[in-house]
């Protein structure tokens, strides 16, 4: 068994033990006729704050606060514990009332975006090596522009040397509109081969109306154009890895605000304050 | 920016703008010319000059002495250099005596603590970091500021130096007047081999390694004299640092030294040819590497790497497969020589050894090995010396060995060919884990006044990327040409640029074979680009300093949430393995 699997099993076992201890405590509270929702509520708030601290730790990377990898692991496992505590807190029932519904959906969204984040941060990096050139996200527009200029160079060459109208037409009608910006964002995100298949067909179709020399140049254009498709693939996957946090973080902060308001309401109307 | 702000104009920094010591005078230089070795150098130059009375004949020598040396006075028991510190200068004893001492505990050596920002300063930097890139406090470049800084540093005394000298395993030989010492560590950019303590009050001439280099270029006899001195004096000490030679009695060591053959392969400025690497095929690159021993050749001796690196390869199909690499202190050939001692069926060398860049080796002939080494080491210890010294990956069963020796990904070939084996803190990114979140870049910028000191991009092999970050090389080529010594090694071996003394000549950036040094235009505190009198921007060299002065380091590695980035020494297999498997 690899060290990675061993570590993962160890962490899951620790999580399971903590969850069981908490479940037992929760039952004890209920049996003692105490309100277990107070226990789970406060624990949830504590876990939520711990989860948010991960983002703050990133901003103070130069302070001796432990390394980010440990924090990330803590973030994932504490998030899982939070789901269990949440389910016990709401008594495994769908909430009633507008505010509770809002709170519920914010929670679900925060968890779902978090899980999606874990999935893409594990699965997507391998995609970067599988197709196209590994590029820094910010350099992609420049690379796209360079590809476009190379293709335009070949088109000009076809006009000057071959007086080709087929290449010019194909370029201006089909290629030009898609060369200036990323395309097929969602298809690439789902690792679809459809964009490539579609363009295979289009290139095959245009070869019919070309002579050998034109086909030769068009094949060079195709090679460059497929680099653009690869670039779009890289762009889509890198963009998602960059931007999913723009969903997860605001939702999580929103959830904390709602939870604090919920706490205020609970204590205001339960005589707890 | 407010309209009334004036552009900062400073004098463009030049070599020898700032002498090693402001106190060095021409009278002192003239006095030095009456002492050896400078007297001989001067005589040689005057003999060659058309007019021996022409004062310009010795101008070069005088300039070096005026700008690259300083006279230091030490009281008895004061420490002159400490063992393990990285040497940036050599010393000439002008008067008095000093003692070389070994293996003294750190606490007694009074090592300066790394200047570290306080917790409050660290906390503040989030808000106090400048908004614009490469902002500097220009007043630091003034002469007065530097003078005050130097005066603030005080002497360090080793108490009971005489008593410690008496307890040393080998009785230390005093360094007498007229002796040039610590030149080897200065030239080789390596750690000091001994702690030198003033035995009596002494006066020393400290020569910066740049000055020593200039002197060696200035006078060929001086260069030869230094090289011979190294062979005579330092080699014994050097050999003693290898476990293989530690138990061998003195007379046998002397016999080994007498019989040992010194060989140098390649060029010390290998970075120039290295930059054309991509123009050659893999086979051509290996063919161009100078051969030290060849597979199938008669095993006539033991090879010990003194400095540099060497590739261990074996024939595979029609080409060579890299099995391993060797670096300073590694030995090869023990097993085959041991086999040949006791077996009538003699074996030849089983692999080829090629110099990577520049390699200094010591060849100990087989009969000398048999007579002066074997009787003092048991067979197991001998074999262990070879096993411990080379990485010996082919004998290991581990994830890291699989990764490195996998013929399809050829990771070891990649490390060796691209000379990443030179790095001690190479930034290695596992692209299967890296999400391109740039937390590492942001953390680096935060620790360096909003200026990231690396580029998260670089050469890739399979899933590993070596990012453009200073690798803090064991052989830092960037230091070779620096005219002012601004780029130097700190006591812990990290390669650091002193921004105050950098003149922006870009020699280091051009010398770095890995393109890990960036030249940047600097700004003053108000955000204006700093210019010289000709209105040309002042530039400075910048690179990763491993977060010098920060409480936790390096920020890049610590800030990666996916454990995708590590600062690695490829030689440190255990650390690498732990990371690959985690």
Short description:
With 273 residues, chain A is mostly helical.
How would you describe this protein?
The complex is a heterodimer of chains A (273) and B (582). Chain A is an all-alpha fold and 273 residues long. Chain A has two domains: 3-131 and 244-270, no CATH class; 137-241, no CATH class. Chain A has helices at residues 3-31, 36-59, 68-89, 98-130, 140-162, 166-179, 185-189, 194-207, 212-243, 245-270. The radius of gyration of chain A is 27 Å and the shape is elongated. Chain B has 582 residues and is of the alpha+beta class. Chain B has three domains: 26-113 and 161-237, Sandwich (Jelly Rolls), CATH 2.60.120.10; 243-389, Jelly Rolls (Sandwich), CATH 2.60.120; 420-581, Alpha-Beta Plaits, CATH 3.30.70.20. Chain B contains 22 helices and 21 strands. In chain B, strands 8, 9, 10, 11, 12 and 13 form a six-stranded antiparallel β-sheet that branches. In chain B, strands 1-7-3-5 form a four-stranded antiparallel β-sheet. In chain B, strands 15-16-14-21 form a four-stranded antiparallel β-sheet, covered by helices on one side. Chain B starts with 25 loop residues before the first helix and ends with a helix. The model of chain B has no long low-confidence stretch (mean pLDDT 82). Classes of the chains: A mainly alpha (273), B alpha+beta (582). Chains A and B meet through helix 1, helix 3, helix 4 and helix 9 of A and helix 5, helix 19, strand 15 and helix 21 of B.
SSE topology:
The complex is a heterodimer of chains A (273) and B (582).
Chain A: H1 3-31, H2 36-59, H3 68-89, H4 98-130, H5 140-162, H6 166-179, H7 185-189, H8 194-207, H9 212-243, H10 245-270
Chain B: H1 26-32, H2 38-48, H3 59-68, E1 69-74, E2 79-81, E3 89-95, E4 98-101, H4 106-109, H5 119-128, H6 143-152, H7 161-167, E5 180-181, H8 183-188, E6 195-198, E7 202-208, H9 209-218, H10 220-240, H11 250-259, E8 261-266, H12 271-274, H13 282-288, E9 291-293, E10 301-316, E11 319-327, E12 331-332, H14 334-342, E13 352-365, H15 366-373, H16 379-389, H17 399-405, H18 411-417, E14 426-430, H19 439-447, E15 455-461, E16 464-468, E17 487-489, E18 495-497, H20 507-511, E19 518-521, E20 539-542, H21 555-558, E21 565-568, H22 573-581
Antiparallel strand pairs in B: 1-7, 2-6, 3-5, 3-7, 4-6, 8-13, 9-13, 10-11, 10-12, 10-13, 14-16, 14-21, 15-16, 17-18, 19-20
């Amino acid at each position: 068994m690899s060290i990675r699997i061993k570590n993962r099993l160890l962490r899951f076992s620790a999580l399971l033990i903590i969850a069981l201890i908490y479940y037992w405590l929760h039952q004890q509270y209920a049996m003692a006729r105490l309100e277990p929702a107070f226990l789970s509520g406060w624990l949830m708030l504590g876990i939520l704050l711990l989860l948010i601290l991960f983002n703050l730790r990133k901003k103070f990377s130069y302070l001796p606060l432990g390394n980010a990898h440990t924090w990330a692991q803590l973030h994932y496992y504490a998030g899982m514990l939070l789901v269990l505590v949440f389910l016990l807190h709401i008594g495994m029932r769908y909430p009633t009332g507008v505010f509770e519904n809002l709170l519920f959906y914010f929670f679900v969204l925060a968890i779902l975006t978090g899980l999606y984040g874990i999935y893409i941060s594990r699965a997507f990096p391998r995609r970067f090596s599988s197709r196209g050139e590994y590029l820094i996200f910010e350099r992609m527009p420049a690379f796209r522009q360079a590809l476009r200029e190379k293709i335009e160079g070949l088109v000009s060459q076809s006009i000057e040397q071959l007086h080709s109208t087929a290449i010019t037409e194909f370029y201006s009608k089909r290629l030009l509109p898609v060369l200036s910006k990323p395309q097929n964002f969602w298809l690439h995100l789902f690792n679809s081969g459809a964009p490539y298949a579609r363009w295979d067909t289009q290139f095959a179709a245009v070869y019919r109306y070309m002579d050998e020399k034109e086909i030769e140049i068009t094949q060079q254009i195709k090679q460059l154009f497929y680099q653009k498709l690869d670039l779009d693939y890289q762009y889509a996957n890198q963009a998602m890895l960059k931007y999913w946090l723009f969903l997860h973080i605001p939702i999580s902060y929103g959830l904390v605000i709602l939870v604090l308001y919920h706490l205020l309401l609970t204590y205001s109307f339960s005589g707890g304050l | 920016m407010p309209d009334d702000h004036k552009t900062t104009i400073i004098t463009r920094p030049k070599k020898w703008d700032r002498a090693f010591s402001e106190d060095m005078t021409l009278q002192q230089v003239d006095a030095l010319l009456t002492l050896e070795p400078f007297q001989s150098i001067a005589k040689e130059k005057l003999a060659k000059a058309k007019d021996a009375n022409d004062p310009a004949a010795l101008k070069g020598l005088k300039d070096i002495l005026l700008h690259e040396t300083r006279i230091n006075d030490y009281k008895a028991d004061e420490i002159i250099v400490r063992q393990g510190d990285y040497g940036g200068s050599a010393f000439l004893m002008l008067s008095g005596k000093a003692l070389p001492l070994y293996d003294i505990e750190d606490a007694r050596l009074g090592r300066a603590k790394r200047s570290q920002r306080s917790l409050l300063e660290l906390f503040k930097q989030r808000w106090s970091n400048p908004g614009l890139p490469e902002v500097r406090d220009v007043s630091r470049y003034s002469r007065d500021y530097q003078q005050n800084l130097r005066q603030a540093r005080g002497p360090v005394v080793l108490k009971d130096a005489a008593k410690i000298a008496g307890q040393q395993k080998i009785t230390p030989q005093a360094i007498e007047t007229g002796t040039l010492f610590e030149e080897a560590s200065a030239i080789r950019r390596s750690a000091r081999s001994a702690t030198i303590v003033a035995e009596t009050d002494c006066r020393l001439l400290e020569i910066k390694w740049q000055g020593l280099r200039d002197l060696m270029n200035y006078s060929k006899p001086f260069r030869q004299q230094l090289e011979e001195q190294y062979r005579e004096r330092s080699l014994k000490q050097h050999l003693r640092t290898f476990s293989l030679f530690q138990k061998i009695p003195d007379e046998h060591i002397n016999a080994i030294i007498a019989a040992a053959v010194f060989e140098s392969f390649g060029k010390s400025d290998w970075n120039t040819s290295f930059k054309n690497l991509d123009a050659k095929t893999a086979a051509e690159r290996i063919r161009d590497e100078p051969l030290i021993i060849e597979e199938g050749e008669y095993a006539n001796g033991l090879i010990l790497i003194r400095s540099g690196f060497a590739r261990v390869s074996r024939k595979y199909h029609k080409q060579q497969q890299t099995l391993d690499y060797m670096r300073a202190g590694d030995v090869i050939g023990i097993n085959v020589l041991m086999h040949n001692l006791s077996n009538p069926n003699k074996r030849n060398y089983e692999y080829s050894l090629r110099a990577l860049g520049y390699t200094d080796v010591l060849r100990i002939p087989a009969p000398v090995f048999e007579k002066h080494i074997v009787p003092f080491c048991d067979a197991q210890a001998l074999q262990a010396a070879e096993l411990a010294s080379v990485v010996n990956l082919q004998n290991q069963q581990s994830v890291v060995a699989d990764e490195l020796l996998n013929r399809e990904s050829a990771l070891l070939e990649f490390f060796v060919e691209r000379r990443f084996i030179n790095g001690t803190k190479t930034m290695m990114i596992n692209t299967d884990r890296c999400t391109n979140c740039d937390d590492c870049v942001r953390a680096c910028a935060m620790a360096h006044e909003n200026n990231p000191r690396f580029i998260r991009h670089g050469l890739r092999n399979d899933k590993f990327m070596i990012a453009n970050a200073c690798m803090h090389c064991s052989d830092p080529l960037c230091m070779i040409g620096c005219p002012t010594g601004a780029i130097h090694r700190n006591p812990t071996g990290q390669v650091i640029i002193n921004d105050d003394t950098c003149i922006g000549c870009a020699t280091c950036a051009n010398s770095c074979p890995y393109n890990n040094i960036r030249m940047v235009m600097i700004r003053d505190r108000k955000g204006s680009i700093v210019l010289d009198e000709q209105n040309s921007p002042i530039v400075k060299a910048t690179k990763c300093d491993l977060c010098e002065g920060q409480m936790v380091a390096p920020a890049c590695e610590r800030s990666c949430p996916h454990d995708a980035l590590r600062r690695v020494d490829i030689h440190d297999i255990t650390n690498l393995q732990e990371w690959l498997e985690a």
